[in-house]
Fold each of these.
Amino acid sequence: MSAEAEAYLRIAGHRRLTGEIRVNGAKNAALPCLAAALLSDEPSRITRVPDIEDVHRLIEILKTLGVEAEFHGNEVVVRPSGVCGGSPPDDLAASLRASFLVMGPLLARTGEASCGAPGGDVIGARPLDVHLAGFRAFGAQVDSVGGRTIAHAPRGLRGATIVLDYPSVLGTENLLLAAVLANGRTRIVNAAMEPEIGCLADMLNAMGARISGAGHHTITVDGVERLSGVVHELIPDRIETGTLLIAAAATRGDVCLTGVSPRHLEALLSKLAEIGIDVQRGDGELWLSVDSEAELTATNVQALPYPGFATDLQAPITALLTGASGISMVHERVFENRMQHLNELRKLGANIVAGGSVSAINGPAALSGAVVRGTDIRATAALIVAAVAAEEGESRVYGMRHLARGYADLPAQLAALGADIERV
Ligand code: UD1
């Protein structure tokens, strides 16, 4: 595709964001919950589903496995009675990381599963060892052939104590999805504690599973014979919430976000307080009102597994820190190649020195419009934040293909808050 033909966002900076926005349901909860629907032969209905590309791709994958699925008005109805195994087409598997989440349910329900190498953002090596070691602990035979994973458990899965080498989010979810139908008790130790794991466990328990401890570092699952269908509402998207809060802060805005879970954002809210942004909490609401002349203060951020600061907000908060006075240090400790936004932020005028997974941001820099390209979902969001906050000039932000995978309507939300932003 030529650069001329490719969609981009035209953004004129220097607009103070004001107004109220309701956030969407969580991308990273939608994907495991769609996979969970594979575990029953009864229909399930999932509500508050964000209209994003990754959800559409996972629905496509489910259809190739014999599932009927419809997506209408933020609800997905999944009818999985036709599931009898199979493998996602390689090109679809390679289009998102969460394609690998069909492995746990297929293995548990049919005794065999296979999947080509999953894709997703190119932000590090992203191995699968946590998932594979877990499947083996359940008694499955697992082989990796040319990037494809093939697992067999002809006599079914048996519960096990599994200590994860790393608290991988999708790894924890995949093992949870397998454990609910395994024979006996499973303990997942050093489990990921992200709120999306709790959302998945709530759905599975409503289907008849027996899971306790989700959201803590040890999860216990007593296997059951069968699961029923369910109606399940997704939690709010804490990364979308965080991105909008950061954009509001960067423009010294006056913004209220509704339908959110403030307790899922403690690490961000504490960093915003250090920077000088006081975010007020209500019941399912967060709002901030920053004086348009306010000076922000530099701070240090380490991206870590939950409840630490979310790696998915590392690029967006870096965009905010370019406008804070002093030197901020940002250390990405989850993914080894997640600093690709820095060069693009420099084009907008940011003063950043980086080495490896650490960056030093010297602010405040007066940003001005430039032509920039996002290389993954959150890097693109960070460039949009920076362009909206720029003191002068127009930007072109490329990378819409990435943005559409993870944000349902970020440009429209920002426009509704007063940003001068238009898709071209
Ligand atoms: C999920 C989220 C993603 C988020 C990430 C970290 C979804 C769909 N995606 O991705 O938005 O950025 O959590 O919060 O929910 N690792 C291993 N071995 C494994 C698996 C992972 O070493 O088997 C490593 C990875 O290389 C990475 C770290 O663990 O360095 C975190 O990865 P993981 O938690 O698995 O992220 P995802 O679940 O892929």
Amino acid sequence: MSYLKSARALLALFGLVAAMAAAQAQTAAGKLPNVTILATGGTIAGSGATTTTTVGYTAATVGVDALIKAVPELQKVAHVSGEQVFQIASENMGNDNWLVLARRVNALLARPDVDGIVITHGTDTIEETAYFLNLVVKSRKPVVVVGAMRPSTAISADGPINLYNAVLTAGSQDAVGKGVLVVMNDQINAAREVTKTNTTTTDTFKSPELGMLGYIVDNKPHFYRASTRKHTVDTEFDVSKLDTLPQVDIAYAYANVGPAAVNALVAAGARGLVHAGVGDGSLPAKVRPALSSAREKGVVIVRASRVGQGIVARNGEANDDQLDFVVADTLNPQKARILLMLALTRTGSTKEIQRMFYTY
Ligand code: SIN
């Protein structure tokens, strides 16, 4: 009898231990963040003819489910779900895609059961999409844009580790309130400052001079700095009611350039023009009258620089006050275009638009 009693007690103890272990596992699982992966295409979803094909492959062929399945480690660090938003190479990313993507991101982040978002994207325009979202996402929750330089079929493809690091970052409390991030090559960069600096290498993404925000090491994002410009919940831009964005184009300066590009862009209906000037945004003598006459027609002109680093100084290489031009501050021309488009959804005042360029 007493033997039976102690056997039952032992069994009960085992049961209790097992239940505690199960409860513990459940709690641990319950603590995993919910991260939604929105897939848009790019090389991260690309495939090549052979394992050594790292150029001349086809971007945007692998679906989001396959991307997630290829990295089973994701399940250990987050509850991951995926949606295929687009399946395109990022040179074809357009304003309409951005509006769709931004609305989806905002809708998902408004839900209490979504802790962070990862967007898989081609690297060619990743910095533009990231900066657009940085200005229009209305949440402090992490949004991480990620790509890869090698297709999924290549030896040492960088997509899986980049995706894993992106999910880690999107699920991290440390990434809350940091604005939209680009995570690649074990590094975290801010959307405003990051740019592609090399056509093919895996360490292509840098924030020239201003520096990256941190690293991903040992399964954890480590932040060392933050971008000081306003973003996400602190901007005045609202895409929820926008069907289109105003047409804004870029005219590039070079030795011997004439006014043809500026005139053509204005004739094609540009409401804003970013001039990617030489040096400190200098205006070649043959282009200046075309820009000035565009301004007289109501086109907003932003003086940027093709150099890619440094401030374009107001009233430096041109008298912006007199010409009624705006300067891009440190934004490169492709990002200045995005801010100008969004600015034009709010105002036509160059004074106000200049304020925005010094704010975002
Ligand atoms: C693309 O931008 O879609 C192709 C190139 C890449 O993702 O690296």
